[in-house]
# Entry
Amino acid sequence: MKLIIAGATGGIGSRLAFFCHQRGDSIYTITRNPSKAQNLFPFAVQNFSWEDNWDSVLPEIDAIFNLSGATIGKRWSKAYKREIYTSRIETTRQIVQKLNNFDEKPIAFFSTSAIGYYPDSGDEILDENSKPGTNFLANVCIDWENEAQKLKPNHRLIIGRFGVVLRKDDIAVQRILLSFKFGFGVVIGTGNQWFSWIHIDDLLELLRHSVSNEEFNGIYNFVAPNPIRFRDLIRTIGKILNKPFILSIPDYFVKIAFGEQSQVLLSSQRVVPKRLIENGYQFRFSEIETAMEKIID
# Structure
């Protein structure tokens, strides 16, 4: 295939570029820093900035991935919350506008979202039909998806709501593993909150499969089929590392330390990939222990 990857220098975008290149795809990128992209991806056909006329190559393109977006891992000042929002909405808007002005052939557009779309729901099982939340992250995801859904129906839209992506360089994974370097694991809050995740290998397979398979259309939860409570996640990692001692940090301390960002750590979202299972996708990593063993190895 001939693919455009927007946000290609990010943690997931860069892995996707290499993954697809290794499968024989031709890669074009759109980033804020094309020179960095050129150094990272010497195999790329072309590295565009957002200001370039990148839509000139659309006649050659089969699919576009938009993986752009500022990390939610930094502290949320008012200014940074604006960056989280605009980095997602504006890039999606530009891609949709370009595609809506192009009608020579259908192109698959993969637009990222996140399980932050859903509310803090305790033990309730959440699938693609569940209602959205009302906090900052939910509102970002709602507007993000609404922008993507302005795509004209002559093109194919896939929206993937990502869970926590388990990879060695993910900031959430690094923070979880940090305390184990001192000999113990840390449970945040009660530990009863659900942790919905996906291993990077499954995510990459799904991303490429979704744009190459015409049956994929609409919204999907990109999560493994077995979410886990946070305390059980920490116990699993402790078992793998043979460091079983666990400490607990109370909710109120987390809220003081992280402010509004604490919602990412304390919210309980038990999300399942109902539509992926219905489509027959076979996860390589459906259990947290095998997924974390691969990450920690």
About this structure: The chain has a mean pLDDT of 94.
